[in-house]
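Q: what sequence does this backbone want?
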């Protein structure tokens, strides 16, 4: 049974990004593809994006009808009264976006442009405009962020001949006639196929390690959209403690230290929680995130805050415990408001 428009948009988003949330798996059946066979194979927790011309069929899966296509730059898909357009990443910076859009890395040049934009964001705090638009989704983001993670494909494109591809433009992962193919795990990188090439993907690049954190920073800026005044994010063109002694980088999944006209925040894009910080606590958090050892963090805090080593060690321990930031980069659920004082 066809679902409401919002569920169709959710299914398309999960297919494009490659990250399951509401559905276990999302199938996109190409025009003239074997829609009936897909509906037979899909389960009650799956979603199927089905061409409008495909015959009606009963299925336990959620069914959403679409027209058009979404594979090459310039393509448009019509789903639930909404038009979604696909853009090449490089071109997206130069076109006027008029509605919901998907931005995709389609070649090595797009991949290098994305990494260059990460470098610009780190140096200046200026982020790529297309990724700040709340109407824009970056295709295959899960694969871009965690390429080596093994994953049973959850976004499946079903070609006209029954071939199964991972995501929008990914590698062939099987055929509809052999349903066991759908249970085999593969690296998320398979969703990118040759965009970028394997050689370019593995090549060393100074901004590679900051890519995921930069993308999450764009999520943060969209989350803070509407805040009055300028927002600065630690590590991106601004540092609260600029003592030239930072020798470590925050985990991509650590919360962000943010400066706003109203004060300092610790913001977690995963939980969407924002914690108000005093200037002292903000300094403790940033030093802790950018020091490779407790000893270095304590030394930096002694100089910054003019406190004893024992007080600096206590401040660091209390802040890390209060905000539940672990060495592996994880962040537990954080209280809505908390300030640590000496």
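A:
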């Amino acid at each position: 049974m066809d679902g409401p428009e919002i569920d169709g948009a959710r299914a398309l988003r999960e297919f494009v990004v490659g990250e399951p949330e509401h559905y276990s798996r999302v199938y996109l059946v190409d025009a003239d593809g074997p829609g009936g066979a897909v509906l037979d194979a899909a389960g009650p927790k799956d979603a199927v994006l089905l061409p409008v011309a495909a015959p009606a069929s009963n299925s336990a899966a959620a069914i959403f009808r679409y027209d058009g296509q979404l594979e090459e730059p310039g393509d448009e898909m019509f789903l639930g009264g909404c038009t979604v357009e696909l853009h090449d990443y490089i071109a997206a910076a130069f076109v006027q976006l008029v509605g919901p859009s998907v931005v995709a890395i389609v070649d090595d040049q797009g991949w290098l442009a994305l990494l260059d934009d990460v470098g610009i964001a780190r140096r200046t705090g200026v982020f790529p405009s297309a990724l700040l638009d709340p109407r824009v989704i970056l295709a295959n983001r899960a694969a871009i962020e965690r390429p080596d993670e093994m994953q049973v494909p959850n976004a499946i494109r079903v070609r006209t001949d029954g071939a199964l591809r991972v995501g929008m433009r990914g590698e062939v992962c099987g055929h509809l006639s052999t349903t066991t193919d759908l249970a085999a795990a593969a690296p998320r990188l398979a969703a990118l196929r040759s965009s970028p090439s394997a050689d370019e993907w593995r090549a060393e690049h100074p901004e590679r390690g900051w890519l995921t954190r930069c993308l999450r920073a764009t999520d943060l800026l969209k989350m803070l959209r509407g805040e009055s005044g300028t927002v600065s994010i630690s590590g991106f063109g601004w540092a609260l403690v600029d003592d030239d002694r930072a020798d470590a980088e925050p985990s991509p999944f650590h919360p962000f230290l943010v400066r706003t006209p109203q004060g300092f925040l610790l913001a977690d894009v995963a939980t969407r929680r924002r914690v108000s910080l005093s200037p002292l606590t903000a300094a403790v958090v940033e030093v802790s995130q950018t020091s490779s050892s407790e000893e270095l963090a304590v030394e930096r805090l002694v100089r910054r805050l003019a406190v004893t080593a024992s007080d600096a060690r206590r401040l660091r321990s209390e802040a890390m415990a209060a905000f539940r930031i672990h060495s592996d980069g994880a962040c537990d659920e954080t209280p809505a408001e908390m300030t640590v004082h000496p």
